[in-house]
Every structure is written in C-alpha cells, then in structure tokens.
Design a protein that fits this description.
Layout (H helix, E strand, L loop, with lengths): L17 H4 L12 H8 L9 H4 L7 H9 L3 H9 L5 H7 L21 H14 L15 E5 L3 H12 L3 E5 L8 H4 L8 H13 L3 E3 L10 H6 L5 E4 L5 E2 L12 E3 H9 L18 E5 L3 H12 L4 E5 L11 H9 L3 E3 L2 E8 L5 E14 L5 E5 L5 E3 L3 E4 L3 E2 L3 H5 L25 E3 L2 H4 L4 H21 L7
Parallel strand pairs: 1-2, 1-4, 2-3, 4-16, 6-14, 7-8, 7-14, 8-9
Antiparallel strand pairs: 5-15, 10-11, 11-12, 11-13
Helix pairs in contact: 2-4, 2-7, 4-5, 5-7, 6-7, 8-17, 12-13
Length: 473
C-alpha cells in the first residue's frame, strides 16, 4: 500500500547567497544535511510500478535507494547507486533528473516529485566523506583488451562496465586531464573538479588505464589501435566539441568566442584564476552570450563571475522554450544575469582595432512549431537594435570533430558528421568498433551519454566473449 503523503513540496536545497556567489567560483548548491535527506526520501510513496526506474538511463534501483536513505542506511544507498553508476556525485549535480527519473515519479503527477538527484548527490558526498569506495562484483580476467576513445561520461561508463566484466581497458584522452566535458565544459560553481577527479580515480582503482595527451587520429588511428596495439574492440565516445558559429558579419572580430573555448579556458585551464594560472581570460564590463541551453547558462554565469557588470543572455525564443534546466535559469536570474528574450544577433560591429564594440540584434516573434516541437522564431522587420558589448560568446550548438572519421574512412557518419551506430548496442559498420554519447546523438545530457556507454559495454562484452564477427549496423 502506498504511503500517506506528509510533505507535498521538495525539501529546499541550501545555496550560497546570490550576491556572494556571483563573485566567486565556489559551488552554488550546498547539499542536504542528513536530516534533510531522510525527510526527502520519506516523501516516496512506494508506488507499485516504480516508473522512476524506467526514466533512469543507467537503470538504478531507485525505490530501493530511496528506502535505504529514508531509513538512514546511507552506506547501503551508496552501494545501490554505485552498482549501476560510477559517477553518482557528478550525476547528482548536473543531470536533468526533472526530465528523466523525477519526470516519471508518481508523486510528481500531483505534487513535487521526490528530489532523486539531490539525494544521489547527498549519498555520494556522504560516502566520499566516509572514505568509501564502490563495491563491485568483478569477473576474473578474460584476456581481452578494449580501447576507449574519450574520457567523457560515455567513455568512463563504458570503461567501468568493461573492467567489471574482467576485460583489460585503456582510455585514450586527447586533453591533459581526464573527464571530457565534465572537466572542460561545466564550471567549478556547478561541478567542482575535485569531484570529477575523485570519481575518475575510482575508475583507476578498478584497473582501468587512462592515457592522456593521446589524440586518436593523430597519436594512433583507430586501425592502429587494432593492428599495432592489439586491442580487440574500440569504443568511441569523443563527444561533440566542434563549435558552431552563425553566418553573420563580424564573427571574426577580437572578443568573439565559442562557448567551448570560453569555458575550456576558464574550467580546464583555470583561466578564472589568472594570473595565478598561466591562461589569461578576457574580462569585460559587458558580455553577451547567445543561446538558451545549459552551456549558454554556464558561459554567462562565468562572465558574471569574471567581473562583467552587464552579463546578457540573448535567446531567440521565450523562457518556455529554453532547453536549459529550470534550476539553472533561476540561479542565473538570482545572480543578476540580464536575459533578453525573443532576440537574435544579425551582426557584430567592431572598432578601428578590430575588436567588438557592439552586437546588432533583431527582435523575434514565435511562429509555427519546428521539428523539435518548439515554436520557430520569426524575425520582425525593422526591429533591429544595438547592444553595447565587448565580448560575444556563441553557445548555439556543437558538432562532431571530423578527425576520427577523416582517418577511419570505413567508419560511416551521417550528414551532421555524427557516427552511425545502433542505438541499442553502439555497434558501427566497422567490425569491432562501437560508439555512443554525443558523437552519435549530437549534444545531449551527461546521463544519456552514460546510458549509451553502459549499453555499448554490454554489447562489447558479448562481442568479445562470443567471437561473433557479424557485429555491425
């Protein structure tokens, strides 16, 4: 029988004061106390069908997890989490649970859903404070070797699953630190990098070897991973890191960035600490970020913390259509981010030194829905206006880096440059090569990439154990 509802709304998440946090890079959300976590977990009504599990891409036993938290069994809850997810502290912070497990929560049909993501973060942080490592059932060594290309969420998850199945796994990362988008793309105030390092270290304890500064397509090709290094299967999880710029005048002016470069300078290379770090960051009184997703939110909130008096977010639709998490939009507004809806840039104007001095925008109105289901923005003639800015950051989508495809001619890609792979197995047309995450789907979420890595790992294990030579799309 379902429990009686005693608390209709989520237990609020303690946060830094907005004025204070807009000037520092410390984590915004402070996390639940033990009492808060127990109270929130007790909101679960123990519904019969457990739809929350269906909403979890990595298939965590959420009802069991919530029951353990509600009873104060945080150790047991941690082991329930880590049985399916090696990155719980990361997922608890950055995954859009409101569109996944919490979206399916029965309680959420009438009241606030149970705050599953916040509880995941609490349990992972509690375990770290207690010095606990995940406890895995690990198979005996199989003698098989697997190469993972890319150390983002998809690659790390695939590596963990394959290591648990007894395979020798090596992760090849192009950058000098592992973590992929978790390291270069998501700011410290949303995801502290020591948490990423801690969860990557747990992977190394499983026996996974991580080789940084290895660019597959340059250091080795995919074919050389098989022929020269002796790997029997390869998983490609290189993400979507190729920036897109609109075809408008002025995008080559000094002061125009892709969000990828802007955030990489700040996050991976610690540009926000300059001159303590070696990487300079351009600091401006007026910054405009173009886009409405989480990456755009990260960039504009970074600009504010770098000292911008006016940090503008320019988005061509309305808040209703914004793909960013509602929580991140709320945090941005609390921090003084100035959001300009229904506007899009049509040109960037420069001074006599070739530097940005303003951005010309045009007002929009919403027309009919497009293929995404959102209403399309339609320009309003004669509605142009200039926004005085010195830095413009474009966060309008990213594509696949063509390096691996260019050096692996028998690896099929679609018209957007994404690798064609089976959605259930990650198998590609090339024997022994599997792929998953943003390199297949285009830009998506951390947890969806992890789900793809998990599914591909199962398929790779079956491929290696069976000796089947017909694994292909």
């Amino acid at each position: 029988m379902a429990k009686k509802i005693t608390q209709k709304t989520k237990t609020p998440m303690p946060c830094q004061d907005p004025v204070e946090r807009s000037h520092n890079f410390e984590e915004v959300a402070l996390g639940y106390s033990e009492a808060m976590a127990v109270a929130e977990a007790n909101r679960c009504i123990d519904c019969k069908n457990s739809p929350c599990i269906k909403g979890c891409p990595v298939e965590i036993d959420i009802p069991r997890f919530l029951t353990q938290v509600a009873g104060g069994d945080f150790r047991g809850a941690f082991h329930t989490l880590s049985d399916r997810n090696l990155l719980p502290a990361i997922c608890g912070r950055v995954c859009p649970q409101e569109d996944q497990c919490e979206c399916e929560c029965t309680l959420g049909k009438k009241f606030d859903a149970v705050a599953i993501g916040r509880l995941e973060r609490f349990v992972a942080d509690w375990a770290a404070a207690e010095g606990l490592d995940p406890e895995f059932d690990r198979a005996e060594p199989t003698g098989h070797k697997v190469a993972i290309v890319g150390s983002g969420p998809a690659g790390l998850t695939a590596a963990a699953e394959l290591a648990r199945k007894g395979h020798a796994v090596t992760v090849f990362e192009a950058l000098h630190k592992p973590g992929g988008v978790l390291i270069y793309g998501i700011p410290e105030f949303r995801l502290p990098k020591d948490i990423v390092a801690r969860e990557v270290h747990a992977l190394e304890k499983l026996g996974v070897e991580i080789k940084t500064n290895h660019i597959i397509g340059r250091t080795f090709t995919v074919d050389e991973l098989f022929t020269e290094l002796g790997y029997e299967a390869v998983f490609i999880g290189t993400g979507a890191g190729l920036p897109h710029f609109p075809n408008i005048p002025g995008v080559n002016l000094v002061g125009v960035y892709s969000a990828n470069e802007y955030l990489t300078r700040s996050n991976l290379m610690k540009g926000y600490k300059f001159p303590e770090s070696d990487t300079p960051m351009i600091r401006s009184r007026r910054v405009a970020v173009i886009g409405g997703g989480n990456t755009a939110m990260d960039a504009v909130r970074t600009a504010k913390r770098l000292g911008a008096e006016h940090a503008y977010l320019v988005y061509r639709r309305t808040r209703l259509e914004m793909p960013a998490r509602a929580e991140e939009i709320d945090h941005a507004e609390e921090e003084g981010i100035e959001i300009i809806m229904l506007a899009a840039p049509v040109g960037i104007l420069g001074d006599d030194r070739g530097r940005v001095r303003s951005m010309r925008c045009q007002r929009m109105e919403l027309g009919e829905p497009d293929s995404s289901g959102r209403r399309s923005p339609v320009p309003i003639p004669g509605s142009e206006f200039d926004l005085d800015v010195e830095v413009v950051v474009f966060a309008v989508g990213q594509g696949a880096n063509p390096l691996i495809h260019d050096t692996t001619p028998d690896l099929h890609v679609n018209k957007w440059g994404n690798i064609v792979a089976d959605t259930k197995t990650g198998a590609t047309e090339k024997k022994g090569v599997f792929a998953g995450g943003d390199i297949v789907t285009g830009g998506a979420t951390v947890i969806s990439a992890m789900g793809a890595g998990r599914r591909a790992a199962r398929a790779i294990d079956e491929y290696l154990q069976s000796g089947d030579t017909d694994w292909a799309v």
